[in-house]
Amino acid sequence: MKRSFIQQMFSTDIAIDLGTANTLVYVKGKGVVCNEPSVVAIDNTTSEILAVGTEAKSMLGKTHGRIDAICPLQDGVISNYDVTEKMLRYFIMKVYSRRPLIRPRIVICIPSCVTQVEKRAVRESAIQAGAREVYIVEEPMAAAIGAGLPIHEPAGNMVIDIGGGTTEVAIISLYGIVYSQSVRVGGNKMDANIANYIKNKYNLRIGNSFAEQIKMHIGTAYEPEEIVNMEIKGGDIIRGLPTIKEISNEEIRQALQESVTKIVEAVKLALESITPEHAADIVDRGIVLTGGGALLRNLDKRLKEDTGLPIIVSDDPLTAVVMGLGKVLENSDLLKKVTVD
Predict the structure, then answer these.
(1) What is the pLDDT of residue 98?
(2) Which of 75, 93, 145, 337 is most deeply packed, by most CB within 10 A?
(3) Which H or E run contains 335?
(4) 3-state DSSP: the chain helix, strand, coil percent, rounded to 5?
(5) Are 114 and 231 members of one domain?
(6) Is position 135 within any domain?
(7) Residues of the chain under the 70 pLDDT cut
(8) Final residue in a domain of this structure, among 210, 238, 255
(9) Residue 192: predicted pLDDT
(10) Residue 147 included in any domain
(11) How confident is the model at residue 5, as a pLDDT?
(12) Which pLDDT does position 213 carry in this prediction?
């Protein structure tokens, strides 16, 4: 039976994975309904929003002086409050077909090591964007729930969530985070590593969006068994002309080495910091990878070699956090246990 307008008005709860690279929205009873880049294009003379999400990302590096394409989150936290508010309002309105009277309850995630000021900024931006109530869940907790880990058990569950701006390393037990560390390394930093490597070695300028494509096509965290090459296009720094070069997956491995090593070091630090009991649990259960960075080729192989532990990539790393938030949204008891002040 089709729901009445009044029923729809009061069935408005949503969960938002407000990420540095992408924002995903989960609607109660429907699942994930939106997955778009966290980018906003603004007319800087009128402050008018020209585009949000996928359309705005296509403008990065290609706008003229009157238009700014802005990424309002950096390293997992809000760097531009006003633009973040406008972006959230856009996504909320898009989900509810621009019905202005709807004020949803929102469950939203934050990195585990943010300050109270950063946490308040997330809450207030959601309220200003139209939320009726805001519940905050720490990102690694949401990732663990989305990956199906038994967080209710008195045993250590280790999750590594590699997002666009941060990597969250956490041990979770009995609905709580026993240990957490947030490292400001993620997919965006990896893209910058690739762009800088190509600039320094080939005197070629490429944008971070193209660097992301290179990472997705031939990026690897471990020495490749077979060399694969890719054609790259950019601006020659010396001649000042567009040009074409070729780069290999082994070179991209070298470019990513700095970021991958920082992730490995964060994992090792976590393993050194936990109790022997939790360490024993992790030996049995392994380490679960979530987030877009978990899709980097052979990252699981590199982590296994460095830790000696089983490494499991979650079934759908890109949506693990928002699916975890969705489960929290759908379960009032779980909501009470995992939200933070």
Answers:
(1) 58
(2) 145
(3) helix 332-338
(4) 40, 30, 30
(5) no
(6) yes
(7) 1-11, 98-101
(8) 255
(9) 96
(10) no
(11) 42
(12) 96
